[in-house]
Design goal:
By secondary structure, the protein is of the alpha/beta class. Helix content is 27%, strand content 25%.
């Protein structure tokens, strides 16, 4: 037991970024489940997978192979546990995958436009994947660094959130593709 003056188990740190189902990821997962033909029988990358929500949705929608990438080894472990709990197979990649191209048919990315430098690098890379023929979908609730001028919204969902994470209890979240 940790003795920190608080409740048992608390260490004074906020939960990790990947421990939440962020609004963009929720919208993207819903879109994939509503449109399984996007991933059915295809090789899918779920970039910045968090705890695996979008990857699991792609596997449940019939993807032939799903790779979930994350930079945090604890997130990678959580993805494996969550996939097993949901009865699907999801391969994981632990590390920075930006710039790589493993020939994915579909690349999915939720909530990747929160920080300027990351958003620019990721958007450029995803657009490159799209130019070579991958279908690229981005889930985003209107973050500051979303490259709206390069994208078109193809769906919108009202996603329930928590005030601990977002500025509203319901976040209008879009699914975007490159123009």
């Amino acid at each position: 037991m940790v003795e920190d003056g608080g409740r048992a188990g608390e260490i004074g740190l906020p939960p990790p970024f990947w421990a939440f189902a962020w609004a963009g990821g929720q919208a993207l997962a819903r879109y994939v489940l509503d449109h399984p033909e996007i991933v059915a029988g295809k090789r899918v990358l779920d970039f910045a997978s968090g705890s695996g929500l979008v990857a699991i949705a792609a596997a449940k929608a019939g993807a032939a192979h799903v790779l979930a990438s994350e930079i945090d080894p604890f997130a990678v472990a959580a993805i494996g546990l969550n996939a097993a709990e949901n009865g699907v197979m999801v391969e994981t990649f632990d590390g920075d995958i930006v710039g790589r191209d493993e020939g994915w048919d579909v690349a999915l990315a939720g909530d990747v436009s929160c920080e300027r430098d990351m958003a620019q690098a990721v958007t450029d890379w995803l657009e490159t994947l799209g130019r070579r023929g991958a279908q690229v979908l981005i889930g985003d609730p209107g973050r500051a660094y979303l490259a709206r001028e390069r994208l078109v919204r193809i769906a919108e969902y009202a996603v329930p959130t928590t005030r601990a994470l977002e500025d509203a209890e319901i976040k209008k979240s879009g699914v975007w593709r490159f123009r």
